[in-house]
Amino acid sequence: MMRLAEIGATARGGVCRLALTDLDRVARDQFLSWVRELGCEISIDTIGNIVARRPGADPARLPVMTGSHLDTQPTGGKFDGVYGVMAGLEVMRTLNDKGIRTAAPLELVVWTNEEGTRFSPIMMGSGVFTGQLSLDDMLKKQDRDGVSVQSALAAIGYDGKRNPGHPVGAYFEAHIEQGPILENEGISIGVVTGAMGQRWYDIEVIGLESHAGTTPMDSRRDALLAASRLTVRVNEIALEKGGNTRSTVGYMDVHPNSRNSIPGRVHLTVEFRGPEENMLAAMEQELNQACDRYSEPGKLDFSIRRVADIKPQPFFPPLVDVVRNAAQELSYTHMEILSGAGHDAVYMAKAGPAAMIFVPCKDGLSHNELEDAKKEDLEAGTNVLLRSMLCAAEM
Ligand code: HGY
Ligand code: MN
Ligand code: MN
Ligand code: MN
Predict the structure, then answer these.
(1) pTM listed for this prediction
(2) Residue 43, CA distances (Å) to 46, 128, 158, 315 in order
(3) N or C: which end of the chain has fewer CB within 10 A?
């Protein structure tokens, strides 16, 4: 048996386990062995989501579901995603140990490709499960080496046969906050009221490769110079908008990436986050204007493709109350918090009742190999998850 953090462990103490790689397979296989030991019924759907079902006393009841993801960022940590999966596993183990049979069935899910790093967009498995993303379109998505989701799923043996999606009575996801608020406030539990919206773009800047020594400065078509100007502008857009909006250029691929050739082509990614849909729309308008401003038709051309558009999503108030009451009854300090990060719970909330439980992480750091969290906080979050699921399962 391997600890999940060992599967893709990096020299700096982080984890690099990209979606649908062989490391993802090893982690999925390990998860399957654990849930089979618990007597769960397993189903794998056509986008690779794994659902482990613990039968309830009343099979007619809609299941109470929890889960998260096993795929990580390239410089990922041990807790982003994995914590939610392990917390759900702990809930099921505890109920087995105590011989408790809930009225409603319980389900623990591992979502495919939550991070959206190797294959865009983000939250792919839960998006297909809830009908927000088209299965056919997602299966065709390719990574930078031209490998499709469909062939990657088959290569790791997780190209399930079951159609994705089924009615869920309630969904809870436990996750580290991935930001500094809970730690700064000295609070153990985040009662998550909702999540910011986000928009993702792929941008191509087309100039012309030419000789760095012979091409005069005034006749260059330097795609990297234009992409750099755009990068500065993207950051200014969120700073100018304020209101908790965020903007990031996270990826840039320069062609031909040779020190003595003027870059002729750049592929870069832009993402915006914000609590208000109209703010995201305004930021997108600014992005389009910036590309127009930096383009010189026939000299420097920009193409923009929006690849993700996830609306700001409130969680289901009655379930948010269940989480708050559970924290209260267990005497954990708690506070309401809005998630800046996207989570599979966001798509689940578009299809049914969903809520999240946050726990603090060290220095608010995540998507970083130094990601860390305290045992007592992880335990508190798991206890709140258990209590919330039991409450929903008996409702
Ligand atoms: O990017 C996100 O919001 C998530 O952590 N994948
Ligand atoms: Mn995550
Ligand atoms: Mn993440
Ligand atoms: Mn998540």
Answers:
(1) 0.96
(2) 10, 15, 10, 26
(3) N
